[in-house]
Design goal:
Helices cover 38% and strands 19% of the residues. It contains ten helices and ten strands. Helix 1 crosses helix 2, helix 1 packs antiparallel against helix 3 and helix 2 runs parallel beside helix 5.
Amino acid sequence: MNRVKVKGLMGVLVLALLAGAGGCTRTVVVEKPVPAPAPALPQNEHLVMAVLYLQHAAEARALRYQAYALARTRLDEALSHHKSPKKLAVVVDIDETVLDNSPYEGKLIKANASYPEFWKEWCQLAQAKAIPGAVEFLNYAVSRGVDVFYVSNRRLELLEPTMENLRREGFPQVEVGHIYLRTDESSKENRRLAIQKTHEIALLIGDNLADFAAVFEGQSTQLRNQTVDRLKKEFGTRFIVLPNPMYGDWEGALYNYQWRLPADQKALLRHRALKDF
């Protein structure tokens, strides 16, 4: 029997051909070629839709206006019931709460880079635009005699460009005593407590649950959701949440807060967390 190998695209095909009166059989094997491995996706491909949503979806813009409209209503209610000798305060996060850093995320996607690459350069440009509704609401709060405090995990070394950016966009009370950036710890609890020594906090506004209470810090996805259910009366009352599908503790919880994992392992954990039917 003669065995002839023929390479093709149709899989393995065995043909038995009768050859001559002797009944000799010739087997022809068509081998399926080994496919080339699929090209690896850029490490930030998962960010593309999130960034496009915040940059282009009118629904995202509407959600932001909605959040600050609700904040104004809740602040008016707090003012009408205010009896404490302490002055009322509104505490806001900065990134993705009052300033839009989606161009920075866009840079990471196009450069196939990851945070903190380019972060200092972006902040030093002081070009982040105001989140829709934020400037109007915070200026309204100040006009009603309420103090505004900016509590952010930007590093202290970025104080000057951060203040420049906020002033450029028209935010009120952009002063050293009203801006609490990160020094040693990422938790904002001690900074909130410092504000509470002199003020009664009427509202906390942010895009990450840790912007509201220390109880959310380091929690698993399941516990974060359970804590939200337990504190559901606070949301829309004292806690005002803005959308941020680009990053946050919600993502960190998927990785068990192991932010330094390789990109392929993070991608695997994201896929494992998906629910389907």
